[in-house]
Design goal:
- It contains 4 helices and 9 strands; from the N terminus they run αβαβαβββαββββ.
- It is of the alpha/beta class.
- It has a domain of about 140 residues: Rossmann fold (3-Layer(aba) Sandwich).
- The chain has a 6-stranded mixed sheet with strand order 4-3-2-5-6-7, sandwiched between helices.
- The protein binds inosinic acid and magnesium ion.
- Magnesium ion binds next to strand 5.
């Protein structure tokens, strides 16, 4: 059997225990394509915990179905699900939007659909970042047509001054400046999803 954990933070919120492999922070510091930290890991985790508390209260007695939008939301959803202190179900969908490597055109297509039937479910869409809002606007319309009992959106990040579609966001983690960012699930050409902080990407723009 492994020994009892003697980490001084072990009784605190488990997302904040600071257990990470040695050398993780140093590794990212050496990457010249990464710019300033926009939201540090600890701030992210504290805010995710607050969102979880809010969602726990709001959904008392009606277990939400968390719908994660892949791939970007996978880190956020996994942390969020664990700080909601009541039953939840989890499903995922993947969408692809036509556009350049760093901007959406608004023409969205479902690449992987949900397994669940949404009829009469309390659906909470979990999204990584809202830029133009076109992706979420499409997802919202598509899911509403499946007649859920309720549908709300929880977005970790919202880029300021960029929205071209008016969407009702029930839960928002942070409003951030309109730079291209990576980390905590967000990528550029599939890289940096495992970066623990949200940082500005300042490297070359990949060709589609
Ligand atoms: P929108 O449709 O313009 O709101 O774009 C939303 C989607 O584009 C997000 O779900 C992300 O997948 C992607 N995206 C937008 N901005 C960023 C960013 O700064 N970094 C990484 N992905 C982004
Ligand atoms: Mg996304």
């Amino acid at each position: 059997m492994s020994p009892a954990v003697d980490d001084p933070h072990a009784s605190g919120p488990f997302l904040l225990r600071g257990l990470r492999p040695v050398g993780v922070a140093e590794r990212w510091e050496k990457d010249p394509d990464l710019g300033p930290v926009v939201v540090p890991e600890e701030t992210l985790l504290r805010r995710v915990t607050e969102l979880g508390e809010e969602i726990t209260l709001d959904y008392e007695g009606r277990a939400p179905l968390l719908v994660g939008v892949l791939k970007g939301a996978f880190v956020f959803m996994s942390d969020l699900a664990r700080v909601i202190c009541q039953p939840v179900e989890v499903d995922v969908m993947a969408v692809a939007s036509y556009g350049s490597a760093t901007a959406t055109s608004g023409v969205v297509r479902i690449v992987k659909d949900l397994d669940s039937d949404l009829t009469d479910r309390h659906v909470l869409v979990v999204e990584d970042i809202v830029d133009s809002g076109l992706t979420l606007s499409y997802i919202r319309r598509n899911l509403l047509a499946r007649r859920p009992a309720s549908l709300e959106i929880c977005a970790l990040l919202v880029k300021e001054g960029r929205q071209r579609a008016d969407i009702d966001l029930r839960y928002v983690g942070f409003h951030i400046p309109p730079d291209f960012v990576v980390g905590y699930g967000l990528d550029v050409a599939e890289r940096y999803r495992n970066l623990p902080d949200i940082r500005v990407y300042q490297g070359p723009v990949p060709v589609d």
